[in-house]
Amino acid sequence: MTPHARRKTAVRRHRLPWGHIVQKMTIALESLAGLPSVSEVARQHNDPFRVLVATMISLRTKDAVTSAASERLLASAPTAAALAALPQGRIEKLIYPAGFYRTKARSLRLAARMLMTEHGGKVPHTMEQLLALPGVGRKTANLVLNLGYGLPGICVDTHVHRVSNRTGWVSTRDPIGTERALMEILPRQYWIGINELLVRFGQTICTPVSPWCSVCPITSLCARVDVSRSR
Fold first, then answer.
1. pTM here?
2. Catalytic residue among 63, 93, 104, 139, which?
């Protein structure tokens, strides 16, 4: 792509009708998908600690497994102090069969201990402090800030990254690049909700393989990047 073409593409991205896009996606999803597991936890309990725990468990784990594992663990350890006191083996049993449950159990226990020793048992509300916790990356940190504290940020997981690039909104190689690119073009009012919206959209309509373009509500605004087959 020439510099002139890149500039034209950038201009088009900045002029996207975001309100229209969000509305169309939201309406299409009303009868198709429930909330992601971490969103459910956040809505049931206004507690950053529960959001942190559920998000750490959710990595590479299906929503149904995440919900059940989070419920079991948080029933036994509803606070950082209680979680820090649990043996790692007990945490492993409570969150099994979440993906990488042994590694997650260790990280959860270490993170809880750090919360106790460095933050008075409370979950911090800055990106820097969250990233210092064992097992916490930008996705987890952003979700805690978004859903736990209502602070603006864009959480990018595999669905957000894929949908954003497939539609042509951004052209990036990794989630960090996608986060930065979306922050440049997406109005701030949509930052917190975009993760939940695109996760649901990516799970049901804009699927990884053979997306459902025939029922997509924003097909006229989609570049269909790297889509060779659709339904």
1. 0.90
2. 139
